[in-house]
Amino acid sequence: MGLASRSCVNAECGATAAGEWGKGWALRSGGFANLCGNCGMAYEKFIFCDLFHGKESGWRECSSCGKRLHCGCVASRSLIVLLDNGGVQCVNCAKNSDLNSVRFSCILCMIHAGRSIDCKGQSSMLLVHRDNLNGSYKHIKREEVMLSVGDLGITSFPDINQVGNSSSQTWRRDDRKYVVTDKRSFNPTNPGCLGISLGTSSNPAHMADACDYGGNSHLSLPMSNLGAEGREQTRSQSALQQVQKGQQVHPKPLKSSLLFGSETSKESISNMRVARPPGEGRGRNHLLPRYWPRITDQELKQISGGSNSTIVPLFEKVLSASDAGRIGRLVLPKACAEAYFPPISQPEGLPLRIQDSKGKDWIFQFRFWPNNNSRMYVLEGVTPCIQSMQLQAGDTVTFSRIDPEGKLVMGFRKAINSVPLQDSQISAIANGNESFLSGVIESLPIVSCYSGLLQSLEATACPQSSGLPAHRILADGVSICLVSDNLASRLIQGLPLQPLLVPEKKRSRNISSKSKRLHIDSEDALELKLTWEDAQDLLRAPPNAIPSIVVIEDHEFEEYEEPPVLGKKTIFTIRASGGNDQWVQCDHCHKWRRLPADAIVLSKWVCTDNAWDPKRSSCSAPDEMGEKEIQNLLQLNAELKKRKLSTGYTQPAEEPAGLEALATLAVLGNEATQAALSVATATTKHPRHRPGCSCIVCIQPPSGKGPKHKPTCTCNVCMTVRRRFKTLMMRKKKRQSEQEAGAHKKLLSDKDDAELGSSSKAGGLPSGTDPLEASESGYNPVAADMGTGQIDLNCRPERGDGGGDSGGGGRAGQTHMSMMTLLKVANLPLEMYLKQNGLTSLVSEQPASSSSHAAVPWAVAESEEGTAEGGHQATTTGRTAPWPTKGTLPWGPSPDPPSSSSFILGRLQTPLRLQDQQPSPNPIHRPKPVHIDARKKRIDRLLSKRFALFSFTIASPSPSIH
DNA sequence: CGTAGGCATGGGT
DNA sequence: GACCCATGCCTAC
Questions:
Q1: CB-strand contact A936/C, under 7 Å
Q2: Can you give the residue range of the structural domain that contains A556?
Q3: A881 in any annotated domain
Q4: Do A548 and A611 fall into the same domain?
Q5: Distance between CA A259 and CA A265 in Å, rounded?
Q6: What is the DSSP track for A392-407?
Q7: Distance, angstroms, CA A944 to C1' B1?
Q8: What spans are recorded as compositionally biased (Gly residues) (predicted)?
Q9: Which of A153, A441, A551, A877 has the most beta carbons within 10 angstroms of its beta carbon?
Q10: What is the pLDDT of residues A840-867, one digit of tens each?
């Protein structure tokens, strides 16, 4: 504690010292007086009441000379010297006085070492304090108590002259019983007990600790039970910040009657959640306020179980994900561990018996890990206890001590609103249930991690009421992935969606910033799959969003400035003619309306939003489908979904397509059966042709049987191809300019990539190189294919197919592909493509556990279409859902080939604002250099840990073509 | 391959 | 810049 410099009161000495313990002034053992470091003369009594400086109450006057003296705080030069005989000496007149003749204003100033103050004859003016340590009673003057509690901002202390009972420890007012006691005699079982702690311990060490507490005068009063909350609540924000910064604060004796005053006199204190300055302990002065126990008297009572033991709240901690996780390690705040738990010198630590609130004893291993020349303390083996208390991340555990036994007890406090969400609630989110969403929104904290999704949800659920720009979601670099993950994890884990009770910053610190790292392990992930998939079905690219493309580890990501929006569940069907439709239900009339397959449907959709069909842009318009058809559709759709889920996301490729076709049939009736069947059959054989998908490949008739397109054709396919081509060229130009700027950098980068992949990269093409870009460096898949009469519409840089013809032969000048060529290739059936490229199976060379099994050409094509359309569509099977397919993971930057568009909802290691990912280009020939095994392993681990969450099989057909 | 233990890392304060 | 601590990550089992 930094004390003001002062001089020894011994005139002969006159030494001036800095006033720090051990630096001129010593704490006299056995007492509370300071000793001059020079002459050893006892100086003042201690004193931390400088908070009362300058206030009337901070002065006392000598009964002899009448001079008003300072209360005796250290900063003061005017002191009363407490004499050994119990008297005091005025440093002004040097006259000795009887202790009681001095009007003390500060309770602390009158604490006399090891001595009880005789109160006889003055009982009406005194409150009784019983020192539990020695059983003595100390009568404390009312105004002194007032001053003490004045530290809490309390000035309206009840008039004990009217209601007090000096012969007792307690007194009453307004039918409430008050007890003046220190924390050692605090008895939580005493109803209405206020537990006023006056810091009147006769334990020098105790008081020394108190003196030393943080150097904060306001904290130096060890009024552990009457708390900081009162102070914090009545203190200005700036003062609070000062407190948090450990700066000295001179609290104003606020008029608050928070605890005692009339306004709240009817209100029991026992339920107040107060942050109690920590109890005594080694180094407790360093405890951060966040660890201060905010235990209520009620909880203390619960812990004490009705016994007469004294409960000393020690500290508390909000459980992190890892604390509450299955590892069973509860990280203890270092300062807390060192202050309140037994000292340990070996990392192995020692077993610690801790009682839970139910009275059950647990034995944890209290140990530490060396960490950066420091220690990290943990309690091991807490899982059973945590589970028994049904605690989750975000809940709080409190540690207290039962005195005098010194037994440790562990209480807990569930986070507010910590009611695990039911499946239905989670589904409600996934389904965009407005009322539920708004509930969620209300309960969501406005913190960075949630705000984005919050706004997104809000904007989607209640677009008309959303006043917040959704793009703020990314304002601080927190990605969609993060946001989604956070919400998802909390939903899944049943974590509380913190209400707006705590200041944002605090919540952010305690929950959100940490929850960024909330971990979902595999089991949770499984659970999440079922629900989050639903949610993913609903995500749509923001309308008119123009993504920028980033390539990471050969995977392309489209980075959107805007977050995805939640869409509405729709059902896709195929018309007999081969066209695709999308069916959406009006929120008002509940009629199903047919929309174009590529229409983006927001979560709230009504008939009047039907811009595509004016005839049915009103709820009064009749249904297009008959009731029976609708029911069939819904039933089959549900069945499809059910089967899909039950197959664990790895269902055979045929299933969804087949079922969907069935659904289509059901809708379209017998008339269309034949045609639809053919589609379904074809789809089964050709995974790239998927009903509902409007990608460049899937929108065509399968097997290349469709009509040939003229150069001037404006059909969907041709238009898409044109857009695609245009996009390619634009990107190429952009890239060229970028390349010229950073040729050197890229050289290094390519070198690195080449090192990673060169060993088996047939064409020696740097990973992720754009085909067009590659053409300039000697590789042009288009040209290569043209050489054999085909073009790879899904041309990917790393194709490096078995023919090895994609090697570095100069093919400059062939970078431009004609529209007709594109169309031609687009019409090529996949089998032909494979055959012509010497491939017989897409899976034959691909490990079953490959992290890129979905990276089949059709998927690429689909993604590219997504880009071209600038949006996404979701089917009820999620097969064209805009997010990564299983097993793709961004990893390290690399050049930038053409794009795809799909949102990533997984967690990224780095907060990249990447929401788009493309399947790895042609995984068949993807090199597997030995020296990147570790990297791959890491990727796989990440995949299993993270993307498992979202790794449902988007592209339902597994790449199996036989 | 999964899990647990122990240390390392890095964001936050 | 130092420290804390949540969690990553490696290794052994």
A1: no
A2: 531-563
A3: no
A4: no
A5: 7
A6: -BTBEEEEEEEETTTE
A7: 13
A8: 803-812
A9: A877
A10: 333 333 333 333 333 222 222 222 333 3
Tell me which residues from 622 to 651 on chain A have a beta carbon below 7 angstroms from nucleic acid strand C.
Answer: none
A863 close to A900: Cβ distance less than 8 angstroms: yes
Count the Cβ atoms, other than its own, within 10 Å of residue A308. Answer: 9
Question: CA end-to-end span of chain A, whole Å?
Answer: 80
Nearest by Cα to A859 from A813, A939, A943, A920: A920
Q: Is the CB of A333 under 7 A from strand C?
A: yes
Question: Strand B closer than 7 Å to the CB of A522?
Answer: yes
Q: Give chain A residues 338-397 with Cβ within 7 A of strand B.
A: 347, 367, 369-372, 376, 380
Whether residue A400 has pLDDT greater than 60: yes
Q: Is the pTM of this model over 0.70?
A: no
A126 belongs to a structural domain:
no
* A439-451 average pLDDT score: 26
Closest CA to A591 of A620, A615, A614: A620
Q: How many CB atoms lie within 10 A of CB A941?
A: 10
Residue A887: which residues within 8 A CB-CB, separation 6 or more?
A: A850, A851, A852, A853, A854, A855, A943, A947, A951
Query: In chain A, how many domains are there?
Result: 4
3-state secondary structure A12-52: CCCCEECCEECEEEEECCCCCEEEECCCCCEEEECCCHHHH
**Residue nearest B13, CA–C1′ metric:** A509
The residue whose two tokens read 């290691």 is: A909
Q: Express each pLDDT in A303-355 by its tens digit.
A: 666 666 677 778 888 888 888 887 888 888 888 888 788 888 888 888 888 88
CA of A513 to C1' of B11 (A): 9
Say whether both A65 and A95 belong to one domain. Answer: yes
Its sign, for the CA torsion A210, A214, A217, A222, is negative
Q: Is strand C less than 7 A from the beta carbon of A371? A: yes
- Regarding whether A591 and A538 lie in a shared domain, the answer is no
Residue A234 lies in a domain: no
Tell if A508 CB is < 7 Å from nucleic strand B.
Answer: yes
Residue A321 beta carbon within 7 A of nucleic strand C: yes
Token readout for A526 is: 């499984």
Q: Find the CATH number of the domain harbouring A587.
A: 3.30.40.100
Examine the domain organization and report whether A542 and A578 are in the same domain: no
Q: Which nucleotide is nearest to A375 (CA to C1')?
A: C4
Residue A899 has pLDDT above 80, yes or no: no
Distance (Å) from CA A348 to C1' B7?
14
Measure the CA–CA gap between A653 and A830, rounded to whole angstroms: 15
* Whether residue A320 is found in the same domain as residue A387: yes
CA/C1' separation A284–B9 (Å): 28
Domain boundary among A382, A413, A444: A413
Measured CA angle at A665 (ends A578, A588), to 5 deg:
95
> Does strand C come within 7 Å of the CB of A331?
yes
**Is strand B less than 7 A from the beta carbon of A230?**
no
Indicate if CB(A326) is under 7 A from strand B: yes
* CA–C1' gap, A512 and C13, in angstroms: 36
Nucleotide nearest to A328 in CA–C1' terms = B4
User: Is A354 part of a structural domain of the chain?
Assistant: yes
